[in-house]
Input
Amino acid sequence: MSTTQLPACDADTLTLYGETFQSRFLLGTALYTSPAVMRDAIHASRCDIVTLGLRRQNPNDGGGDAFWQYIRDCGCRLLPNTAGCKTVKEAVTLAEMSREMFETPWIKLEVVGDDYNLQPDPFGLIEAARELINQGFKVLPYCTDDLMVGQRLLDVGCEVLMPWGSPIGTGQGLLNRYNLRTLRDRLPNTPLIVDAGLGAPSQAAEAMEMGFDGILLNTAVAKAHRPPLMAEAFADAIDAGRKAFHAGLMEKRQTASPSTPTIGQPFWHQ
Output
């Protein structure tokens, strides 16, 4: 059985900033072929939290009425994001606008440092997080799997970390398992949600088997041939991975070990 310490969110529910959620699946709302497909995917995912970007959809913009109506009616916690922001000022300004437009202090904080792989800028991210926390925001920072960056984000007041599995939209899965396990082991009382880079339900299950508290993704569902069915597959995988983590995974061995012992068993001869 694994000796990994159980994280803070070790019950069936997920608690973030004092609010409890039944699902550990957070789903993005971009890239769907239509608002109806997005709605069906959200329903199939059984998620309680959906992310959305002010730069993509503004509820005060008539062109986004259908999209916003589906989002508002889904019954999920809204998690606006600062996707596309490259500076602290941009991220803070967009977060302030999102709080006014969507009437929520929750924000998924993104500060892009590199256009090639959309890697977060750790320095800008920490600075922006500090400013937003001081303004009363509930900040969920999208960060890399670097332990010290995660620790600094906690130091400025973040209560949740969302490390990437791999760069956004790549579908590469968990590229640095050592760093991810280090985060989980060293921050046992911090909710950790793997955000970005997952392309298959099996990858989500693996992250949950490692003890992570949730999964946030978008592209793998939105770009599937049948997004609602893929959303359901991810939801099932997340649940299965969580159950496996609590059950205790068997340790890997170098030699075979028979599942049926021979001692004390009868041998039949012809």
The first helix runs from residue 35 to 45. The mean pLDDT is 89. The domain at 14-247 is CATH 3.20.20.70 (TIM Barrel). The first strand starts at residue 14 and ends at 16.
